[in-house]
Write a structure and sequence with these properties.
Layout lengths: L6 H9 L6 H13 L8 H15 L3 E5 L5 H7 L7 E6 L2 H13 L6 E5 L2 H6 L5 E6 L6 H11 E10 L13 H15 L3 E6 L5 E6 L1
Parallel strand pairs: 1-2, 1-4, 2-3, 4-5
Antiparallel strand pairs: 5-7, 6-7
Helix pairs in contact: 3-4
The structure holds S-adenosylmethionine.
Length: 211
């Protein structure tokens, strides 16, 4: 992923964001050692941002689309009260195995349920109102994830969508992912059902609140 800000500004933001716990530092190192595309992991700044959102929303139910090795799920789970749950899903068995091991070692892992399978199937199986969701999987399906999650989100609930600037490719979208994300940004900005702000954090984060 191309960084949108000058590297020294990214570094400054990293150094002035609260450090993540040791278990996440170790998970990031393990991900780099064992996985292809380790840069998919959200990392400190976005992980702490997700934790802060969870502290503000105080969700009973969080849904995540795209577990990978579990970094963002564990970041949000840190902020969950007893009795609150996070459902996360992924289609990659190897990533799920790493995530399951990380959840088993963490004090927060018991709050997380990992479902191996396509996200739309996982979302379709959720019947309780969702308070917070994080979309971070295959980009061309984001419009479907957005609609399916919004329909299940309580009024006042929050949706967070990652990679909404596609390393800048949304400005002149040529590939399928950039076209899908640009189309969704246009749709969200006019969606009467929500309030939103597109934050230029990392690769672009859409922060959406359902009315
Ligand atoms: C960017 S990574 C997620 C990173 C993760 N949120 C983190 O912070 O470490 C995207 C993940 O989405 C998963 N994915 C792709 N298509 C999917 C689908 N249809 N349903 C569920 N997960 C999918 C991939 O296997 C990959 O692990």
């Amino acid at each position: 992923m191309l960084t949108l800000l000058p590297p020294e500004i990214e570094d400054y933001a990293f150094r002035h964001t609260r450090a993540e716990p040791r278990e996440l530092v170790e998970l990031e190192a393990l991900t780099h050692a064992r996985m292809r595309d380790p840069q998919m992991l959200t990392g400190r700044v976005e992980g702490r941002f997700l934790k802060l959102l969870a502290l503000l929303v105080r969700p009973r139910l969080v849904v995540e689309v795209g577990t990978f090795t579990g970094y963002s799920a564990l970041s949000m789970a840190e902020a969950l009260d007893d009795g609150a749950r996070l459902i996360t899903c992924d289609i990659d068995p190897q990533a799920a195995e790493v995530a399951r091991a990380a959840f088993a070692q963490s004090a927060h892992g018991r709050k997380i349920e990992l479902r191996l399978g396509p996200a739309l199937e996982t979302i379709a199986g959720i019947t309780e109102p969702i308070d917070l969701s994080f979309i971070d999987a295959d980009k061309t399906a984001y419009p479907e994830y957005y609609e399916a999650l919004l329909a299940r989100t309580r009024p006042g609930g929050v949706l967070v969508l990652d990679n909404m600037l596609q390393s800048g490719r949304v400005l002149a979208p040529k590939d399928a992912a950039a076209r899908a994300i640009h189309g969704l940004n246009e749709r969200i900005a006019r969606d009467e059902r929500v309030e939103n702000v597109l934050l230029a954090v990392r690769d672009g984060v859409q922060l959406v609140v359902k009315r």
